[in-house]
Amino acid sequence: MFWNEKMETLSGPALEELQLKRLKETVARTQNIGFYNTLFKDAGITPSDIKSLDDLAKIPFTKKADLRGGYPFGFLAVPMSQVNRIHTTSGTTGKPTVVAYTKNDLTMWSELIARNLTMVGLRAGDIFQNASNYSLFTGGLGIHMGAEKIGCAVVPSGVGNTKRQIEMIQDFKVRGLHCTPSYAMHLTEVAEEMHADLASLEIGCFGAEAWSENMRRDLENRLGLKAYDSYGMSELFGPGVAFECPEQDGLHIWHDCYIVEIIDPKTGEVLGPEEKGEMVVTPIMKEAMPLLRYRTGDITMLMEDECPCGRGQKIARLLGRSDDMLTVRGINVFPSQIEHVLKNIPEVGDQFMVYIDRVNHLDEMMIEVEMNKNIFSGELQDLSKLQTKIMKALQETLTLRARVELVEPGSLPRFEGKAKRVVDRRVI
Amino acid sequence: MTEKYIIKQLSIFSENKAGKLAAIAKIFLDTGVSIQAFNIAEANNFGVVRAIVDKPEVAFNEFAKQNYALQYTDVLAIKMKDVPGGLYEVANLLGGLGINIEYAYAFRSGEYGALIVKVTNPREAALKIVEAGIELLPAKDYNF
């Protein structure tokens, strides 16, 4: 089933022509952004040098850290009067990354979600439960808009209150569910404890964190549904950038909206199909915040085989990260953010370790922080207060609760060269 | 003059892990510092080891050298009769004087006992205690 068959199956010269037209429009829009003026000048190129899709390679990459310099609205290509929505996502240090949308952006984004949900078999009249955070996280409102667009009856259940979520699935006869795969596992366990009957569930869309084929089998068997992988990131609208079709063999990345390259993250060299590397995406349908050759940090590869479903370019399910970003409970966390928070708390040193575990299918983050021996008051109650203070500061920045342990000065490992401050003990 | 009653307690940050106390005790041994009174306060996988010793500076310097987070804390040592009701007598008097105890621990030395107390303002409290006729042990008996 297609939502937009013509676009979804566009190929050959017609697709390339459309991509080039949209790329040129995007390049033109980026010239309203100071960062891109400088980028083009420094690279010795002008927008008119982009005459073919191959010319894309002349443009230098844009990195997430570059977005930090533009906080809050430095990457807007349109006046605020044309902005219709603002979301934020985690930045690499203290400030979040701001993403903005025009009315057309929101329409395009929801069109992509509509394609994805239709592709996996959802249709008008289905009851669809969106167990995603509805605030600044794009998985809430983003998926919601697309599900409404195709005519689903959408239950905006948000996150948490798992028993209530299960009751609704059971009582409303929910057919489609969207959440993070780890939350789906948690929901499964709670449903089993409750002896809930979730027979109405047929389609699960799971994303925002990496998950394994084992986890897919487990979810499919225990929830009695087909589980589909969803890929996206706020800088590229949000969820819906790429999605699995019923073949469950790779994710179609919407070729009329995104030009994909795979590069060697160390050298920047562009790699061929079936070669693993970092995905670089140029979104060509974004108005408010156009980006060129954006380094996603995600490791995947372009799949060469044609898909029986008739749609275009596929990427493999995510194979890791080229940087040190972590995904904890579906939320992206950079160790540099943690470091930034700790640096602003004089009672602790700048040495820390992060441990991540999965307890009852939910991620738990624990951070060990060394005390600053020069600012120790000697009082136990001050230590407890300090612990709370660090937890609050981390929660404000990461939007995630973490356990904090204070440890003795000098007790954490010191690193020569690249620090390995994160110990991820999760088995997925 | 109440300054002579101010006792320098060592407050040492320690994780609550096997072997941590031994490591701390070893430093006292190696520096030849004698412990007069000792107490551990614990919360959330860490704690504060509190010690009153004969040579606080010697111990402090060695702990600092070995990277410990530690601090001097001013405390008072109130002499207690080593008989039933000894603690009641002291506690009752402090209560009557409106002195709030943040924490306290006791030890016994020779024929009498002593209550180590941490109060908000030790100098002011010492004055009140002495004026009320309770005996405070001077720092020289412990620290020097």
Describe the structure.
The complex is a heterodimer of chains A (428) and B (144). Chain A is α/β, with parallel strands linked by helices. Chain A folds into two domains: 80-322, ANL, N-terminal domain (Rossmann fold, 3-Layer(aba) Sandwich), CATH 3.40.50.12780; 331-424, GMP Synthetase, Chain A, domain 3, CATH 3.30.300.30. Chain A is built from eleven helices and 21 strands. Chain A has helices at 5-8, 12-30, 34-43, 64-69, 103-119, 138-149, 162-172, 181-194, 213-223, 335-343, 380-398; strands at residues 83-89, 97-102, 127-130, 153-155, 176-179, 203-207, 226-233, 238-244, 251-253, 258-263, 277-283, 294-300, 302-303, 314-315, 320-321, 326-328, 331-333, 348-359, 362-371, 402-407, 422-424. In chain A, strand 8 and strand 9 form a beta hairpin. The two termini of chain A are 31 Å apart. With 144 residues, chain B is α+β, with helices and mostly antiparallel strands. Chain B has two domains: 5-73, VC0802-like (2-Layer Sandwich), CATH 3.30.2130; 75-143, 2-Layer Sandwich (VC0802-like). Chain B is built from five helices and six strands. Chain B has helices at residues 20-31, 56-65, 86-96, 122-131, 140-143, and strands at 7-15, 35-43, 46-53, 70-81, 101-109, 112-119. In chain B, helix 1 crosses helix 2. Chain B starts with 6 loop residues before the first strand and ends with a helix. At the A-B interface, helix 11 and strand 20 of A face strand 1, strand 3 and strand 4 of B.
Question: What is this entry, summarized?
Answer:
The complex is a heterodimer of chains A (428) and B (144). Chain A is an alpha/beta fold and 428 residues long.
